[in-house]
Design a protein that fits this description.
Structural class: mainly alpha
Radius of gyration: 16 Å
Strand content: 5-15%
Shape: elongated
Number of strands: 2
Order of helices and strands: EEHHH
Helix content: 55-70%
Strand order of the largest sheet: 1-2
């Protein structure tokens, strides 16, 4: 969850700001996306560790992890 600022979270305020209107908006946006990717990555890790190996769904988890890595590379340049 984001930090509350009045009735909106800081995250929502950043997401509502056009990226070309605020000099730090892009960096803040990328930071939010990185945080979300970390949450998804942690969830995948916990899911994977709860499955007994070899599990038929493990290959799907691996594919999701590869997609997360591809997104990280796009974001980080």
């Amino acid at each position: 969850m984001g930090v509350k600022m009045g009735s909106q979270t800081k995250e929502q305020t950043v997401l509502d700001t056009p990226l070309d209107r605020h000099p730090l908006a892009l960096q803040e946006f990328l930071s939010i996306v990185r945080n979300r990717l970390n949450v998804i990555s942690t969830s995948l890790y916990l899911l994977e560790s709860s499955l007994e190996a070899p599990h038929p769904h493990s290959r799907y988890i691996e594919k999701m992890k590869h997609e997360l890595e591809a997104l990280r590379k796009l974001i980080n340049g």
